[in-house]
Specification:
The chain is mainly alpha-helical. About 70% of the residues lie in helices and about 0% in strands. The chain has one domain.
Length: about 70
């Protein structure tokens, strides 16, 4: 399960899914790689978590505990 620190991560995932469709996860991975190459480990981790969140949001069924 991805670790979501704030609402902005959901918003970023939703924007990527809207703008890139099925390629949203690849775009998040590319942004993570770019951040890593720039030496920005904080943004690298953020984009990796957003990538995982996109995968989770793309699933057709609920994952984990449902209340």
């Amino acid at each position: 399960m991805p670790f979501v620190t704030d609402r902005e991560q959901f918003a970023a995932a939703a924007r990527l899914m809207r703008d890139y469709g099925a390629e949203a996860g690849l775009e998040a991975a590319a942004r993570a790689d770019h951040s890593r190459d720039q030496g920005n480990h904080i943004h690298f981790c953020r984009w990796r978590q957003i990538e995982r969140l996109i995968v989770l949001l793309s699933m057709p069924c609920a994952v984990g505990t449902v209340h």
